[in-house]
């Protein structure tokens, strides 16, 4: 009987959590329907959507968030839509990609990605220190800017034992810049006369998170989306060696310093923190596609599902962005993150011209 009661309690708890997600998901769904309707109207009037549904969803979500702050009833569903649903969309994209694309990209591109990450780690860290930021905060900003935004910050923070203030400071501006990159990067296609391949590489090198690369490249077509995702995945996979290297460095410094109190232990490193589940899923689906275990007839529905989930997640992203946060971020942190991103963008623009 006690085991049955425990199982029943677990089921009720799971159902309660699901019901808590529904209001926020429905709100994101409503913004998505309006955004898709606006895109459909553009297609009828202009034969081509000048503003894609995912961009409309971000802007509309931000407008709603500026006028009204969602209560706790809505937040869990919005957060779920912004993170988990977008991660599912990224994973599904793997079914449309073959590893032949990675082989075709060649060692030159992979080497260029690695060199870019290493250069930007050094530049972002040095710039942050020049602006007077603390060592740990400078490391968080460098890793977030150079690898994958908040995910890199979350993975590195426990390893270097960063405090809550450093973590909050380093991630508080990332959401705003991430949205601006998704909205603004496609404008560079006509300005710089970028090919689909070049724009995919540029997006993969500069946009913070893997899901945001998907959002930034969808308007440019499937080729840019595939290449951008592959480039970004290579960039993200560098998080593993970086985190392991930092953990060894911290352990060595602690040992060499002979701290009087041995209270702090080296943080354990979970493989799932280094390589998130949705990236593993992406690689598995890409492998299945490469071995022709995913039928061609399934590609279109899977891609369409991923696209719709992306719009839902962009609505959630907009609903979670409070532009007023800019007033709470320190000037030096804002300068460090912004300048680092601009330098990364400049370096990446110079790099993509080698890949026609």
TrEMBL record:
Protein name: Putative sulfate exporter family transporter
Major subcellular location class: membrane
Membrane topology value: Multi-pass membrane protein
InterPro entries membership: UPF0324_pro (IPR018383)
Pfam families linked to this entry: Cons_hypoth698
Family label: Belongs to the UPF0324 family.
Ranges that cross the membrane: 21-38, 50-68, 80-102, 108-127, 139-160, 172-192, 199-221, 233-251, 272-291, 297-321, 333-355
Membrane among keywords: yes
PANTHER family (alphabetical): INNER MEMBRANE PROTEIN YEIH-RELATED (PTHR30106), UPF0324 INNER MEMBRANE PROTEIN YEIH (PTHR30106:SF2)
Localization (cell): Cell membrane
Keywords associated with the record: Cell membrane, Membrane, Transmembrane, Transmembrane helix
Gene Ontology CC annotation, any one: plasma membrane
The keyword ATP-binding is assigned to this record: no
